[in-house]
Amino acid sequence: MTGADTPSDAHGNVLEPHFDAPGDATIGSLSESAIESLVAGVDADIETSDTIEAPLENAPMAGLWALFLGLFLLMLGNGLNGTVVGIRTESEGFSVAVTGLVMAGYFAGFMLSPAAVVRMVPQVGHVRVFAGLASMASSAVLIHSVTSDPFTWTAMRFVFGFCAAGLYVVIESWLNDTATSAIRGRVLSLYMIVSMLGLGIGQLLVGVGDVEGYALFVVASVLVSMSLVPMTLAASTTPPAMTASDRTSVRELWSIAATGVLGAAMAGVVTGAVLGLSAAYATRQGLPIDRVGLFVSMPMVGAVLLQFPIGWVSDRVPRRGVILAVASTLAAACVGLALVSAESIAALGLMFLLGGTMFPLYSLALTYTLDWAPSSKTVAVSGTLIRVNGVGALVGPLLASGLMAVFGEAWLFWTGTGAASVVAAVTAWRIVTRDGVPLERQRRFVNLPGRASEFALRLAPRPRRR
């Protein structure tokens, strides 16, 4: 391996992992007495912070519980609605290809929403934007119960996805504006846990009512509407700062860290296919309704339990090796799901493993890209990578449903196998042919929720290298 194999920018210049050096020039321009004064001031600040910082740093955390409650209710409604729609596509007589189109509508709306919401909030206000989006999402859920037209359902999934993404953006920017630097890491971790658990529990709620009636749509609508209550009660009169970051082109990002871009795209393909079509797949396999809910919720449990250990390991060994291991495990889990019966206990364990590798793969791809990117471009790079992942999530259900229609329903998971195998193969090749980031210069793992916006990344403490 040679230095010539390292990534280059759009102009062909070789890039080294960016490492922020201390401000030596600034310090060097100060006199000795000025430096002594600065040191004395820092010592005084440290002594003061030892006595007052600890009790105060928990105060903002207490004020965030209303926001997390609103997020939890929103995710409950989202999980329940998506599962009911997936199940009902079978009873309504939709073909597999039409089901893929309906479920892809959510990801199309999700991908287009953030840019529009960022422009809306300064003009209308964050509380009104949240209220409007929550009302639209709640109404879109109810429309499913009064018509079975597939084009209408596709449009309503688009509206719901648009509103859901906008609501996440408002919540994330709200949390980002409220959280202090002392608790930002905990806030982001809790955000991921609440998101995944809310989505998974919402999927389990499909077993509490008659899926063929309208009651579950009403329950999902009520949950989305109720998310508005704690959010408005917790609202401040000052809207959180919401400014879109500059973008880095995909071509430039590819020249910086091709492995990260490919990993984010393929993780999106698998995530979109699994989240969009697993309920329809389980129903077509003949699982009872309560078992369908358990089947589709297992990936969320896996994400919550395995994301943190995988991130911990990736901070202590070369990250590309972890990406290779996670992508290979994800491919193996998909192979197992394509071969075993959906009714077996093994299928539940494999769905757990699928979620425990599918969601961390995206976080690993993001963190690896940031390993190579300059710190000044952290948010810009992440914004582009989130869009790459969103395109993959849109393609996932369309591609998988088309293959399922031609070759059989097991191709939901063969699609996942192919996407994960591409990541594993390319990563293995680049490990052999390209130099990686030295271990001591790797950034801290960014534990980002699967469908979060760039505002969630701003919640993370600055990902400094060790």
Please give a structural write-up.
The protein has 466 residues and is an all-alpha fold. The chain has a single domain (57-457), classed as Growth Hormone, Chain: A. The chain is 74% helix and 0% strand. The protein is built from 18 helices and no strands. The protein has helices at residues 24-28, 32-57, 59-62, 65-91, 96-124, 126-143, 150-178, 184-204, 215-226, 228-233, 250-256, 258-284, 289-314, 319-339, 345-372, 378-407, 411-433, 454-457. The protein is globular and about 55 Å long. The two termini are 25 Å apart.
Secondary structure topology:
Blueprint: H1 24-28, H2 32-57, H3 59-62, H4 65-91, H5 96-124, H6 126-143, H7 150-178, H8 184-204, H9 215-226, H10 228-233, H11 250-256, H12 258-284, H13 289-314, H14 319-339, H15 345-372, H16 378-407, H17 411-433, H18 454-457
Short account of what is shown:
With 466 residues, the chain is an all-alpha fold. 74% of the residues lie in helices and 0% in strands. It has 18 helices and no strands.
